[in-house]
Structures are given as structure tokens and as C-alpha cells.
Amino acid sequence: MPITLVIGTQWGDEGKGKVVDYYAKKADYVVRFQGGNNAGHTIKVGENVYKLHVTPSGVIQGKTGIIGNGVVIDPEVLIKELDELTARGIHPKLLISDRAHLIMPYHKLLDGAEEDLLGTQKIGTTKRGIGPCYSDKIARNGIRTCDILNAQLLKRKLERILPIKQKMLSIYSKRDILDLSSIHKTYLNYGKCLKPYITTTHITLQEAITQNKTILFEGAQGTMLDVDFGTYPYTTSSHTIAGGAAIGTGISPRHLTNIIGIVKAYTTRVGEGPLPTELTEDIGQYLQQKGQEFGTTTSRPRRCGWLDLVVVRHSCNISGITNLAITKLDVLNGLKTLKVCTQYKINGKIINYFPANTYDLEKCEPIYTQLKGWTDLPKPITTLSDLPKEAQEYLTYIQKEVATPISLVSYGPERSETLDCY
Ligand code: IMP
């Protein structure tokens, strides 16, 4: 299919990097549309492991990567990532939107300062400056990639913004000094490095669609971290749902008809906030260790829980997901019984939807269906019927409960450990 969108249906870290890498085989363009270097995608190719935070994963396969207008870019991180890829023999083909916003030094300082001040009520952000950068975008105080190509324009903008940011830092009792000439110089240098890549990517994409090119949109984070439809305020600051791809790249939503929702076979989240099916004891630790559930970006341990189909259904409905890709099925190997949450009970009332307020969410009791586990998975798996009966039943149950077919199953970190069920 010429246009495919891959998004996370849970709290991020669903294994999107591997699935994107798989679909990128056929793509001409691989496009990021939201988030920034709060994301971390791991791609394993033979002995080589690549961890990417801003660069679209498809560049590993020699595809053209596009960083859309909806992404927030830390230029220092991006330049380092590009240098590292080049040093490893990959020469990334990259285009960056001239409308994408830049993470500035004060965004990172303010992200940390706000989190410190919130204490026990903190969001648990990645402290990469993501929230403050998106706040400035909406408040119309942002600095965009096009601005670092013009010394006068950048200076004018910094002269207006820096005094405000300096005041904000002092409100948080931070002593850091925002030096205009040094920030100006540093960002103009970033502009010089990135100039060959900065362009009108929305037009590139519109033309690519007209020419029937194959385009893969690569979501970062997951639906439950969407700033409107996630566990607000314990979310990120962008739109992680399918609609975000249109806004974050400048293409019409009518082109988004093939939408793959990534579902990890269990649930994880990093940072604070509600997680109704959380397992704090043995099985949670088992999943954490076996699934290597430690953040790609911050190395924080991820909280683990049973698969929550209220969450997956919510994602499917909001994004119009057409197919599911199940990841990390092998991590469940060896568990005698598996539980899957299908509904919640709040104050004795059963609900099928994900409530908006965190107060209700804290009181949510998951209602579980128990399914039989399996011991191991054969390798390689070439058809669904190669799977143990119990694993087939697990997958069938998911498809039925969320009324969406499964098109891909990942059962190990290697590219080859992927079953395409189309
Ligand atoms: P921020 O995006 O750094 O502002 O962090 C806000 C919330 O989103 C925190 O709970 C983070 O842990 C979470 N978050 C941000 N990016 C990711 C990701 O790529 N995977 C999982 N969680 C993320």
C-alpha cells in the first residue's frame, strides 16, 4: 500500500522501531511527524544495534527520512546522530521541514526546573525540553528551522524571547544565564550544518503522493501519551494519534487509510501516571527482565502490566486503526496463565471506555479474562498455525475484542523474527 502509518496503541515503547524497519523495506520515504528526542527506537540488524531518537528509522535501510513540521528538534542531538550514522557507514538521506520547531537550551532547563518544582506530582518527563518547546510553539514564541538560516531574524527573535525565559528561570530559582550572543552563534552553526537538509517537506510529500510513491509515517510514543486522548496530564505534549500525521506533515488526512497499530503483547509505561493493569510484584518483574523493559532514551525501568484491551480499543477507535502488529509475543513464553483486561469497574459500575480524569483512573479496577499460556515458541515461524494453540488463542482473542485484524507478529528482536500474516 503506498501510504502506511505506524502508531503505538499503548504508552509508547511498543516496539515500533522494529515494525517501521520492517515496513520501510518497501518505502520510498519514512516520515516522523511528532515528538522529538524523547523517543527512542531500537533497530537490530544482525550484530548491529542502532538507537535513533530523532532521525526516522528508515534511513538505516537507505530510505529518504523526513522530519515533518510537527516534530521538535534538538539540533545538537540530531547532528550527533547523523555524525554517528555516517561514522558507521550509513549516509542518511534526510529532509527536514523548514517549519519544525527547535528545542532551545532554555527549554531543557525549564523542563527540569518544572519537574523539580512539581516534586511528587511530577510528570516524569524525559527532561529533553519537549513540553516547553511545544508550549512555545502554541504560544507563538517558538524558533523554527527556517529561523536558524537567517542571522538577523534569529537575533531579533532571541532578543524578544530570552529576557522572558531568563525571568522564568529565576522564578524557578535557577541561576543559569542565557547568553544571547553564545546561543545565537551556536544555533547559527547548527543552521549551517543542517541547511542542506532543511526544505519544504510538505511539498515534497504532496508531490510524492501525486507520483504514487510509497510513504511510511512513523509515530513516536503511543496513544496513551497523546496530549488530548492519553492520561493527561501524564502525557507527552504532541498528538501521537493518526490525526497527528496529517497536521505534523502537511498532507491531507484522506490519504491515511492504512493505519497499523502496534500492540505490545503486555503493557508498559515509563514515567508517572495511571496504569490500570500494572503488576508490581513477581510477574511485573518477570516481564520487565525478560522483555528488557528499560527506556531507550532515559534507561529508566518501565512499569509493566497485563495487556489492557480497553486501551487498545480506545486507540483503534480514535485512530481508525486498520490492522494490528503484535510485538514481543515471545516475552510471555513460560507464563502458565495470562490475563487480559477487557473492561474496568469504577465504584461498582462497569465501563468499556478509558475515563478522562486521573481521579477516576486511580479507582479503576481491571476486569480480566484468563487465558492459557504456552511454554515456548518455535523458530522460525512461517504461518500462524506454527504457533502453539494457546498463543493462537491469545492472538485470536485480541483481534476479536478490538474488532481489528492482526497483520504482523513479532516474536524476537531480530528482523527475521517477524511473521507477516497478510
Ligand atoms: P516528555 O515527552 O519528555 O515531556 O515526557 C512526558 C511523558 O511521556 C513521560 O511520562 C515520559 O516518560 C513519556 N514519554 C515520552 N516519550 C516517550 C517514549 O518514547 N516512550 C515512552 N514514554 C515516553
Ligand roster: inosinic acid
CATH superfamily of the largest domain: Adenylosuccinate Synthetase, subunit A, domain 3
How many structural domains are formed by the residues?
2
The chain-level mean pLDDT equals: 95
Quaternary structure: single chain
Structural category is: alpha/beta
What's the shape?
Answer: globular
Total helix count? Answer: 12
Quote the CATH topology of the largest domain.
Adenylosuccinate Synthetase, Chain A, domain 3
Largest sheet: 10 strands, mixed
Percent in strands: 15-25%
Low-confidence stretches: none
CATH class of the largest domain: Alpha Beta
Number of strands: 20
Radius of gyration in whole Å, from Cα? 22 Å
Describe this structure in words.
The chain folds into 2 domains: 3-89 and 201-420, Adenylosuccinate Synthetase, subunit A, domain 3 (Adenylosuccinate Synthetase, Chain A, domain 3), CATH 3.90.170.10; 101-194, Adenylosuccinate Synthetase, subunit A, domain 2 (Orthogonal Bundle). The protein is built from 12 helices and 20 strands. It has helices at 16-24, 75-87, 105-118, 130-138, 151-171, 180-194, 201-210, 243-247, 282-290, 309-319, 358-363, 389-402, and strands at residues 3-8, 29-32, 41-45, 48-52, 64-67, 72-73, 93-97, 101-102, 198-199, 215-218, 259-264, 267-269, 303-305, 307-308, 323-327, 337-346, 349-351, 365-372, 406-410, 418-420.
